[in-house]
Each structure stands twice: as C-alpha cells, then as structure tokens.
Amino acid sequence: MRAVVLAEHGEPLELRDVPEPTADPDGVVVETEACGICRSDWHAWQGHGDWVDDRVPTGQVLGHEPVGTVREVGADVETVAVGDRVVVPFSLADGTCPACRAGRQNYCEGATALGFGPAAPGAFAERFHVPAADVNAVHLPEGVSAVAAASMGCRFVTAFEALDATADAGGGDVVVVVGCGGVGLSAVQIAAALGATPVAVDVREAPLELAADIGAAATIDASEVDDPASRVRDRFGGADVSMDALGSTETFRTAVDSLSSGGTHVQVGLTGDDDRGEVALPVDRVVQDDLTVAGSRGMAPRRYDDIFAMVAAGRVDPGALVTDRVALDAVPDRLAAMSEFDTVGVEVVTEF
Ligand SMILES: [Zn+2]
Ligand SMILES: [Zn+2]
C-alpha cells in the first residue's frame, strides 16, 4: 500500500510502497478516510525533539490525525467491529498503567504516538494499525464528516483540553491565543464556544482574517505592533488565559506578558531548533501577579463525547478550519510549505 515515509530528516518525504498492516490480538486495522496535516508532522520531519529524547526515527510512516473505517479486528478486541467509523487520538495509550487507570491516557507511561514511532506507523497511508483498540479507537457519531473529524486526533482536542480542562477557561474570560496555525485557530473557535472572549495574535494577515471569521473578538498583527501584549492589556485589561500555540521564545513571552493578575498560561506549542525545548520564564512576575504556567498535551479518549456534543449542537465546527483537501502524494509539498509558514488553516488528506 502507499504511504508517506520520513526518509531523512529535512530531506523530501517519500511516497513509498510499504507492507500492509495486520491486526494484533488487541488491535484493529483502519482504512484511512481522511488525515489532517499538522505542524507536529513538520517537527518530526525536521528531526526536532532530540532535546527531550523524542526525535522521530527515519523510516517512519507519518500522519496522526486520522479518521477511517475499521477493516480488520484482533481476536481480543471487544468494543470495535469491522465497519465501525473511528477517530484515533495521536497519543496511543496502553490502558493499563497508573496514568491510564487515573483517566489520563494522554499521559500514558507506556504510550506510543501514532505516526511518531516504529511501533505505530502513521496514517499518511491507505491503512493503519491501532493498538489497544478498546482504549484508542473512538467511535465517530453519525453526522460528523471525515474532514471535520480529521483534526480530532490532535489539534482540536488538544486545544479543547488545554482551554477547558487545563486552564478552565469559561464565560467572561479573555483568552489570548498566540500563533494561529491549526491548533491556535481551533483554540479561538473553542474559546468562543466556551463563552470566552478570544483574542488572536499572529504575524500573518490571512490566518488572522480566518480567526476573525470563526469567532475572534479581536485580532492583533504582531508584525505591525511593537508590543502585542501591551495591546491586550490596554484593550482588555489583560488576559485571564493565554496560550502559546506555536512554541518559541517570542510567542511564549507575548502570551505570558498578556496575562492579568491571577491569569493562567497554557503551553501547547513545542519548540524548534532556535529554542530546543527551553524558553526563559519571567518568574518574578509569576510570583508577583499570581500567574500559573501549565502545559497540556492531547486529550484522553473518554472526553471525546464532550466535543461530539458541542459539534452536534453546532457550538463548534472543526470543518470550518479546513482550507484545503489534498491527495496523499501532496503531503511532502504541503509540509515543506510549513517551513515558510506558507499554509493557512488546516489542510486534510482525503485521497489515498
Ligand atoms: Zn497534529
Ligand atoms: Zn497507560
């Protein structure tokens, strides 16, 4: 079958013929219907993450935001059947470790990540395998399109978990989102749905226009403003919640500096070669202004019903962030475009 393979870090990705997956006793094989293209794929391709021992090896099939139909079921699987439509969180859990037993499957101690490790070839492929399917395969309700669901394995649930659970954002809160790629735009839409006032910050006009379309109360073009954080403080009295959705010294500081007293920063963006996993924290302000700095990664499968309910009620529409549908052989070029920040919104592979 066809799949997109990380041949060498930073070199063009290759569309290759790879062996068909077969179902482990606890796993299922899923035929891919759609798979979002994400900046995490780009980080993997670039070879980032070695500073936290998380570098994706060459030979890896990428792709971690899939939706599809189950075609083969392992003998021990109890809750998933052939023909079921499923969405799969990128953070695959074993279902048995202390974190999983505490309901924190997105921080599983025995985790593999779909499309990021040899044990879990990804979904930029005609078919892919889901281990521990009773834990990791989430049934998709009728009425949620494949394209809308293609972000629910990663960016959309990451944004939801970060704002709703980690930062407890809600009615009346000013939420500043710095970096309006896929996860940032998702956060803007979700913040609006939670009754908050989203403020979107980016250095590009097109994503800011999209942010305004999907619910941002204000947008700030950081390429035209000396101090975007002071804009947030001047106009809104500061943010109750800030999110760095990109992962750099500059975006982190803009986000944290936007906070008002008692505010919470949640980090979801991972850093690149410039910062290599570390940014400076304004620790005196953290003390003097009672700030909280938190991190958030993915979302546990048991919380998917909360998102499906919001989609069914029309409160969020992940499909509104999708700006293009492409074929599998376009993935190498579309990831290359991310190097120049030349993509807007979410692009989804729909032809395999
Ligand atoms: Zn992703
Ligand atoms: Zn676990």
From TrEMBL:
SUPFAM superfamilies named among the record's database cross-references: GroES-like, NAD(P)-binding Rossmann-fold domains
SMART domains, A to Z: PKS_ER
Listed InterPro entries: ADH-like_C, ADH-like_N, ADH_Zn_CS, ER, GroES-like_sf, NAD(P)-bd_dom_sf, Zn_alcohol_dh
Keyword Acetylation: no
Domain named Enoyl reductase (ER): residues: 10-349
Keyword terms of this UniProt record: Metal-binding, Oxidoreductase, Zinc
GO molecular function terms noted in the UniProt entry: adenyl nucleotide binding; anion binding; oxidoreductase activity, acting on the CH-OH group of donors, NAD or NADP as acceptor; zinc ion binding
One of the GO biological process terms: small molecule metabolic process
Domain of life: Archaea
Gene3D superfamilies: Medium-chain alcohol dehydrogenases, catalytic domain
UniProt cofactor(s): Zn(2+)
Entry-linked PROSITE patterns: ADH_ZINC (PS00059)
PANTHER family, sorted: ALCOHOL DEHYDROGENASE-RELATED (PTHR43401:SF5), L-THREONINE 3-DEHYDROGENASE (PTHR43401)
Family affiliation: Belongs to the zinc-containing alcohol dehydrogenase family.
UniProt name for this protein: Alcohol dehydrogenase catalytic domain-containing protein
Species of provenance: Halosimplex pelagicum
